[in-house]
Amino acid sequence: MCCQGKMFTSLLIYTLLLPLGHASLPLVINTWPFKNATAAAWSVLQSGGSVLDAVEKGCARCEMEQCDGSVGYGGSPDESGETTLDAMIMNGDTMEVGAVADLRRIKNAIGVARAVMERTDQTLLVGESASVFAENMGFIAEDLTTNKSLNIFSQWLKGNCQPNYRKNVIPDPSKSCGPYKPRATLEQNKRARHVNMRSHDTIGMIALDTTGHVAAGTSTNGLTHKVPGRVGDSPIVGAGAYADSSAGGAAATGDGDIMMRFLPSYLAVELMRTGADPSAACKTAISRIKRHYSEFFGAIICANTTGHYGAACNKVDGFSQFHFMVSNPESDTPLLKSVDCF
To answer: Which is an annotated Pfam family here (predicted)?
Structure first.
C-alpha cells in the first residue's frame, strides 16, 4: 500500500507537470464551446484543405449560427442599435493578414477579411469603406439587425442606457442617455467596470496541418452597447490572434479594450518561439495584463508547431474556468476542454 501510494503521488505530480495538450497534428483549437465551428474546421483539414480554409470555414460557421449572440449578425447592438462586425485571418507561412472592423451589412466577416488579404495589399479595412469593398468583391449586402438585437437595444434605452462605456461627459453617463458632451474637468473614473461574459465571446481559432503550417483567425460582433465606431482586439494583429509557422499560434477573447493594449497573442507566440510550453506562454500573456488590470475579463489559447496546446484565463467573479474546443487525431469528434483561471 505504501509503495502504491508513492507511485500514485509520483504519477499525479508527473501528470500535473505535463503540458495541457499532447503533441498531435493536425490540430484545430478555438475559444469557447463552439463545437460546430471546430467540426467545420476539422472537416476541412481532413479533406485536404489548407489551414486558412479551415480557419475561415470554422469562423464562418459561428457567424452563421450566431454563436452565443456575440459572433455574427443580430447581436451586440451598439449605442445606436446597429450590429457591426470585426474579423481577422492570418497566414503563418507568409505573415499576411486580412482584417475588417466596424463592418456593416455583410454577414460573412471572416470571408471579407480573407478577401482583404488576398485581393489587396492592405491589412485592415474599416467602416463603410470595408462594406463597399465587400460588396464589390461579391459579398451580399443584408440587414444585420434581428428582432433579438432590436429588443436588446430597446431594453437598454428603457434602462437609461445602462451599462455604457462613457466617462468624463455630461449628462452623467451612469444615469442618463446621450447625446453627451465633454465635462469641463477630467475626473478619475470611479464606476465599476461591467464584467459580462456574454458581451465578449469572440471566436478565436488556430489551425495546424500535419507539417506544422499555422493559421489563426477571429470573428465577433464586438461589445454590446459599445460606442459606435469602437474596434476591439479581435481584428488587431497580435492582439486578437497571431500566427507564425516557425513558432505557433494564439488567439484571445475577453475585454478587448484592455487586452489589445498588451498584444497577448503576439507575446504568447514569441514565448513559444523561445521554447515556452503553450500553457506557460498563455499564462504569462494573461499575467502581463493582470499586473495592470487585476479585474479584467479574458482568456487566451495557444498552440505550437508540434501540436501541443494550452490555455489560460484571469479569475474574476463569475468566471473561474475557461472552456475551449480541440480537434486532433486523438479523437474522432471535437473535445471540450477547460482550464482553471488564476
So the answer is: Asparaginase_2
Three-state SS at 110:
helix
Facing residues of 319 across strands?
316
User: 168 in the Ramachandran plot: left (φ > 0), alpha (ψ -120 to 50) or beta?
Assistant: left
User: Is 201 annotated as contributing to ligand binding?
Assistant: no
Residue 19 near residue 303 (C-beta atoms within 8 A): no
Which amino acid appears at position 104 of this protein? R
- List the grid coordinates of 298: 479574458
DSSP code of residue 247: T
Which residue out of 31, 38, 202, 305 is catalytically annotated? 202
d(CA 51, CA 39): 14
Dihedral sign, Cα of residue 334, residue 56, residue 209, residue 237 = negative
Counting beta carbons within 10 angstroms of the beta carbon of residue 199, is it exposed (0 to 12), middle (13 to 18) or buried (19 or more)? buried
pTM of the predicted model over 0.70: yes
Cβ neighbours around 158 below 10 Å, total: 9
126 annotated ligand binder: no
Tell me if residue 202 is catalytic. yes
User: How do residues 54-65 score in pLDDT, each as one tens digit?
Assistant: 999 999 999 999
Q: How far is Cα 95 from Cα 113, in angstroms, rounded to an integer? A: 14
Known binder of ligand: residue 232? Answer: yes
Number of C-beta neighbours around residue 129 at 10 A = 12
CA distance 303 to 310: 6
Segment 273-296, tens digit of pLDDT: 999 999 999 999 999 999 999 999
